[in-house]
Specification:
heterodimer, A: 525 residues, alpha/beta, 6-stranded mixed β-sheet, 18 helices, 22 strands, 25% strand, disordered C terminus, B: 396 residues, mainly alpha, 77% helix, disordered N terminus, cell membrane (chain A), ATP binding (chain A)
Chain lengths: 525, 396
């Protein structure tokens, strides 16, 4: 069988740094080919070479697509042949409708006037193909991330697509949406479309991939035919990081003390739709040295709950009592929350966590400038010392603390954010999706840091959509659905099935489907 | 840290040092090149003591407003009203001093307070109501242009009390016996300033070195210090051989030093840059973003008022047309000086250099007899060119 796509001996370097070395990569028609590797392994570079972002001549090696050698000058050349790439950051225009987005570049038209009937007819067809039951008129901003991802795929299908490249398509999706997306990929396989799936989620890869290629440091280190041999996650992980990862989660013996955070009867309303109660009179507590997980689907209200605790940074008409170390607290602002010993590490580190154009040092000290600024004047040497100290303690890989955080990898950026919050010396840390978009090696390091925090007697709350992660690191898991806690499990007794069952039972009793962010809190009990 | 990182940074040191400094000093070098160019083509008129003194007086109010505008731009906003506000304050000052015969210190303070109130009024809508600053200050531009006309009833008003005029046209008093045409007090201040600058930078460097921080190579440091000291001395020598240091130059220098310090070394300065860099992240780090934005507008109002007073004192009359188009020069100065239109980036030194580039070009082209029409064309192209170079440098 001849391959649909063959990349031979591809090498590419940037200013002396070798990003790809002699990579060989083949995809057959109707094959789902998973490309895995740590961040910085060269996956994105390889895809940019394939799609013409790096034009012919800027790399070495050859690309053969459908039997001919191709020399793409730019991304239009590759798109013309049906090679479509869907980036991790969605490229949809939020205030335009689904139909307008799908036919943004080449709307069907007569004499330059857009043919609306034709646009709607074809949009409906495409939406049916990706399994999306929305009106073509719906604005993108009213859709959840999962549905936006499907619109992006529909957009790809509106062009003649032969090969679909998906860069971490499920990174920000919940389990149900991820499953729906992966099912779509399987139907494309039947239509003879080749797919390249870049993903950090090995369970998904195992589920759908026909072939897996592992990249490390710009080289192909493993190639697995999934039909010929069973998929072993541990083998993939160890070839990705080149060390035997016997345990994906570090060992820990919890020493749990007295309660440090107690929340009672906490209730929050939506800031834009003040009649919607988003958090419904919940109780929650964390003890010293304890790691508590909050599980739930996207849109369950977990982030909203955490942010409303953190100085009322989300929501209106917030009521309920919040006690820290037994003392009743009123925290009207983020500054007050930080002073009281609360820290919240956001799920969106690029938009909400970091100032990407600023260096590592400034980002680390941003929330605790008082510590290094006697009389409001910054002592730059004290600042440098603190920053360098965190850099070595947290093993942040950067050239020096003056490097821009925007240039660091996801894992190292997350360590910078964690350093910032550790410097405030919090009693309770709330980590919202702390390992999203981070490679396996860096994840392990983040887990170790979480353990160290708990061992130092802090209370740690972890919000995560990856259930194995919660099961691996938490002493206790609370399950949230539709703004209320619907289940609680002690570490050893928790399983994915139990958590999922708690959510699903609640979903049925509410009579609502899978909640999307846009519909959040819409159904009242 | 390990030995490896040290040797790595050692290798990178010279290369990265030159690269960083090209970006920081690029505009300064352009300024020097422009000055040399006009010095040659005007046959030495540009740097004649009389002309240099005029150059300072003509541009002082632009520099003063550029300091405030830089902070506004760094937070990601813009203020289009500064020219109108400066004109309005000049009118208010004239009414107070000329018609009501209010004491000039009292009038001066009252005017600064009115400026602060104007800044607060505009900042309130921008910071707390989230109305785009472009719109709020566009409205302010119309309002205060109209109010200036109303206050002056369409007439020019003057002259100001003699002591008030000294704000712009006065020179520091001479305490030492004069030596020919040279003013020794001014020369002495210049020498102290030059020594002080070299001393503080040497001290800072050795302090950093003693803590094992990477510092610029010694040759660079020495060359830079000598150049800086010579430039300051030569400049004061020229100024001192006319009528000594103008009062307004002293005010301007003090303000530049103050704002340079605030932006680089204080908590509030750091927080202003954080707000411009990523307002959401800053607010989730406990920074009161609204209040800071509000304060930058209050500060801008005060500086616009000061500039209005300086300008009125210089003309010795308040006219309804005063301040017309100043906002464009001020904003251009900030962008030529490397501030980013997206916020979070910009330096006080850059804005000052940007203002001086505009000033030298105005002055030089006027000496050459180039009409006001082509002066505008050339200034517009320089603004575009400067920002293009900056964008190109950042992409590299």
């Amino acid at each position: 069988m001849t391959a649909m796509l063959e990349m031979r001996n591809v090498s590419k370097s940037f200013a002396g740094v070798q990003a790809l070395r002699d990579v060989n990569f083949q995809v057959e028609a109707g094959q789902i080919h998973a490309l895995v590797g740590e961040n910085g392994a060269g996956k994105s570079t390889l895809m940019k070479v394939l799609s013409g972002v790096y034009p012919h001549g800027s790399y070495e090696g050859t690309i053969i697509f459908e039997g001919e050698e191709r020399r793409f000058r730019d991304i239009n050349d590759s798109e013309a042949l049906g090679i479509i790439i869907i980036h991790q950051e969605l490229a949809l225009i939020p205030l335009m409708s689904i139909a307008e987005n799908i036919f943004l570049s080449h709307p069907p038209s007569k004499l330059g006037v857009i043919d609306r009937d034709e646009v709607y007819r074809r949009t409906r067809e495409l939406l049916a193909q990706v399994g999306l039951k929305e009106s073509p008129d719906t604005l993108i901003t009213d859709l959840g991330v999962g549905k936006q991802q499907l619109v992006e795929i529909a957009k790809a299908l509106s062009k003649r697509v032969r090969m679909l490249i998906l860069d971490e398509p499920t990174a920000s999706l919940n389990e149900a949406d991820s499953a729906a997306l992966l099912e779509r990929l399987m139907t494309f396989r039947e239509q003879g479309i080749g797919s390249i799936l870049i993903s950090h989620k090995l369970n998904e890869v195992a589920k759908v991939a026909d072939h897996i290629t592992v990249l490390r440091d710009g080289r192909t280190v493993d190639s697995i035919d999934c039909h010929a041999e069973p998929i072993q996650e541990d083998r993939i992980i160890s070839s990705m990081v080149n060390r035997d990862l016997a345990h994906r989660f570090p060992e820990r013996s919890a020493k749990i003390g007295e309660p440090v955070l107690d929340v009672e009867n906490w209730s929050v309303y939506h800031p834009i739709h003040p009649e919607r109660q988003v958090i419904k009179n919940v109780n929650f507590s964390v003890r010293r040295g304890e790691v508590v997980g909050i599980a739930g689907l996207m849109g369950a209200g977990r982030t909203e709950f955490a942010m409303s605790l953190f100085g009322r940074s989300w929501g209106t008409t917030i009521s309920g009592s919040l006690r820290l170390e037994g003392r009743e607290m009123v925290l009207p602002s983020v500054a007050a929350a930080i002073d009281a010993g609360l820290a919240y590490v956001t799920e969106d580190r690029k938009q909400l966590g970091l100032i990407l154009a600023d260096d590592v040092r400034k980002n680390i000290t941003l929330a605790s400038l008082d510590q290094i600024a006697p009389r409001r004047v910054i002592d730059d040497i004290a600042e440098l010392k603190v920053a360098s100290d965190y850099r070595s303690r947290m093993r942040i890989r950067c050239s020096d603390v003056y490097q821009e955080t925007g240039q660091l990898s996801g894992g190292n950026q997350q360590k910078v954010v964690l350093s910032k919050w550790l410097m405030t010396d919090p009693k309770v840390l709330i980590l919202d999706e702390p390992t999203r978009g981070i490679d396996v090696g860096a994840k392990y390091e983040i887990y170790c840091i979480i353990n160290e925090l708990a061992e130092a007697g802090r209370g740690v709350v972890v919000i995560s959509s990856e259930m194995p992660e919660l099961l691996g690191i938490c002493d206790r898991i609370c399950v949230m659905n539709d703004g209320a806690f619907v289940g609680e499990f002690k570490g050893p007794e928790a399983t994915q099935e139990k958590i999922m069952r708690a959510i699903m039972r609640n979903q049925r009793s509410n009579g609502s489907g899978v909640p999307e962010a846009a519909e959040m809190g819409g159904s009242q009990p | 840290m390990t030995d490896k990182t040290v040797s790595l940074s050692e290798e990178r040191r010279h290369g990265s040092f030159i690269k960083n400094n090209l970006r920081n000093y690029g505009m300064l070098m352009s300024l020097i090149a422009i000055m040399l160019f006009f010095q040659v083509v005007t046959g030495g008129t540009l740097l004649q003591p009389l002309n240099l003194t005029n150059l300072v007086l003509q541009n002082s109010y632009i520099v003063i407003m550029a300091l405030g505008m830089l902070l506004v731009i760094v937070t990601g906003h813009i203020d289009l009203s500064v020219g109108s506000v400066a004109g309005f304050i000049g009118a208010v000052a004239a009414v107070l001093m000329v018609i009501y015969k209010v004491d000039y210190t009292l009038a001066f303070i009252a005017c600064l307070l009115v400026g602060a109130a104007i800044g607060a009024a505009q900042g309130y809508w921008v910071a707390y109501f989230k109305i785009p600053s472009f719109i709020v200050t566009l409205a302010g531009m119309l309002v205060f242009k109209g109010l200036a006309l109303a206050v002056l009833q369409g007439q020019s008003l003057g002259p100001f009390p003699a002591t008030f005029q000294k704000l712009s046209s006065g020179f520091i008093p001479e305490l030492l016996p004069e030596a020919g045409t040279l003013h020794p007090t001014s020369m002495l201040i210049g020498a102290v300033l030059a020594l002080g600058l070299v001393y503080t930078s040497a001290k800072g460097r050795s302090r950093e070195q003693s803590h094992g921080i990477e510092v610029e190579p010694y040759a660079f440091f020495l060359g830079k210090s000598i150049l800086l000291a010579c430039a300051v001395l030569y400049f004061t020598y020229l100024i001192a051989s006319h009528r000594g240091l103008p009062n307004v130059l002293v005010i301007m220098t003090a303000l530049i030093a103050l704002y340079g310090f605030v932006t680089r070394r204080t908590v509030i300065g750091r927080q202003i840059y954080a707000v411009g860099g990523n307002a959401k992240a800053a607010s989730l780090s406990g920074i009161k973003t609204e209040r800071l934005t509000f304060l930058t507008f209050v500060n801008m109002g005060v500086l616009a008022a000061l500039a209005g007073l300086v300008f009125a004192a210089r003309l010795n009359t308040a006219t309804p047309k005063a301040g017309l188009g100043f906002e464009l020069d001020v904003i251009a100065a900030c962008f030529i000086g490397g501030a980013s239109a997206y916020g979070g980036v910009g330096r006080v030194g850059g804005a000052v250099v940007g203002a001086m580039i505009m000033g030298v070009m105005n002055n030089g082209m006027s000496i050459l007899g180039i009409g006001i029409d082509y002066q505008q064309v050339i200034k517009g192209l320089v603004l575009l060119g400067a920002v293009c170079i900056d964008v190109y440098n950042q992409r590299r």
